[in-house]
Specification:
The complex is a heterodimer of chains A (116) and B (236). Chain A has 116 residues and is mainly alpha-helical. Chain A is built from 4 helices and no strands. Chain A is 79% helix and 0% strand. In chain A, helix 2 packs antiparallel against helix 3. Chain B has 236 residues and is α+β, with helices and mostly antiparallel strands. Chain B has 2 domains: 76 residues; 118 residues, 2-Layer Sandwich (60s Ribosomal Protein L30, Chain: A). Chain B has a 5-stranded mixed β-sheet. The termini of chain B are far apart. Classes of the chains: A mainly alpha (116), B alpha+beta (236). At the A-B interface, helix 4 of A face helix 4 of B.
Chain lengths: 116, 236
């Protein structure tokens, strides 16, 4: 009990605590999210992905320094940054598809007009 | 927090990306929880950030789904238009065929083994001259009109005479008459490249030269039309 209390007090500090394991699973999830984002076409030009990369790099640094809690928090944030990047790219593509469809419809209407 | 409220009140987003909205809400709840402890400000910021990101992701997904729905509708419309264009083109071709028939009938051109031939009688010229009479205008304007409407068609204008007089003079006259017709057509705007001129003189008579009537028939100009691709049959 006292140990737990002690641990909780220490949570305000950056130093690792017994209740903070190395967030290897989270890092894996983050890397997976970034790979998915890249797979649909996100790049360093996508702001959210650039942010994710920075955070992942910082998380990896923190891992090396055994600052596991910091690493976990950074990795969680990076994961969502990457997923936002993915969602943005997919949304942009769907918008482009709409624009293209509108163009093709306009051309068809022109053709029809010329024939009638 | 404002971002989460933004999306939690948007029914479309709730419908399209329910899981993301739920996670956004959960993260926000945890942020509030930590804010209540004498816990770390870092945690509050962290979960508030996650909540914001989940909300943004939810919005993006929802917009994307909306766009996809719209794309489906537009694809259907495109398909309908494509079919309409096809039908219109088909009708166009059919009506053009009928129109061509009408034009040919009005030209009174006869189908011969050389192709479509229109005959201009001797009366359209001043006697023994290559000068076109005004009475020729109406007929020749029909030819011009036909050539304007069918830009790929070409003509060969053939002059013929009877056998009275010098053969060489007749040859020259027949060519001159053909030329006169050609010049007239050209003057109204038909390109010279579409017009061939030839004189056959006394050759290829169509009636016997013994009678006046027969001779009159032989004195003629024939306009030979090409096919719809511009191909003329070989010269005689």
């Amino acid at each position: 009990m006292i140990r737990h209390l002690f641990c909780m007090l220490l949570m305000t500090a950056v130093a690792g605590c017994a209740s903070d394991p190395a967030p290897t699973e989270q890092l894996r999830l983050t890397e997976q999210a970034m790979a998915q984002a890249r797979a649909v076409g996100a790049s360093e030009q996508t702001p959210a992905l650039a942010l994710a990369q920075e955070r992942l790099a910082a998380a990896t640094e923190a891992m090396k320094g055994e600052r596991y809690r910091e690493a976990r928090l950074l990795a969680e944030q990076a994961e969502l940054d990457a997923r936002l990047a993915e969602a943005r790219v997919l949304n942009d593509k769907s918008e482009q598809e709409l624009a293209e469809l509108h163009r093709r419809i306009a051309r068809m209407r022109e053709q029809l007009g010329a024939l009638q | 927090m404002a971002v989460f409220e933004g999306i939690s009140e948007a029914p479309q987003i709730l419908q399209d990306a329910p899981k993301d909205v739920v996670r956004a809400g959960e993260s926000l709840a945890r942020a509030k929880q930590f804010a209540g402890y004498w816990g770390s400000a870092e945690d509050v910021i962290h979960y508030a950030y996650l909540s914001k990101r989940y909300s943004e992701i939810a919005r993006q997904h929802s917009e994307q789904i909306q766009n996809q729905r719209r794309a489906t509708q537009l694809n259907m419309e495109l398909e309908r238009l494509r079919q309409a264009v096809q039908e219109a083109k088909l009708l166009d071709i059919q009506s053009q065929d009928r129109w061509l028939e009408d034009q040919l009938i009005s030209l009174a051109a006869a189908e011969t083994d050389r192709g479509l031939v229109m005959t201009l009688g001797d009366v359209l010229f001043r006697a023994a001259s290559a000068e076109l009479d005004a009475s020729a205008n109406r007929t020749l304007l029909k030819v011009v009109h036909f050539l304007q409407l069918n830009p790929k068609r070409r003509v060969r204008i053939e002059g013929y005479t009877d056998n009275r007089g010098d053969a060489a003079e007749n040859l020259a006259l027949s060519k001159a008459r053909a030329q006169a017709v050609g010049d007239f057509i050209q003057s109204i705007g038909i390109d010279a490249g579409r017009i061939e001129i030839v004189g056959y003189g006394e050759q290829h008579r169509i009636a016997e030269n013994a009678s006046a009537r027969g001779r009159a028939q032989n004195r003629r100009v024939e306009i030979l039309f090409s096919d719809e691709n511009g191909q003329l049959s070989n010269p005689r």
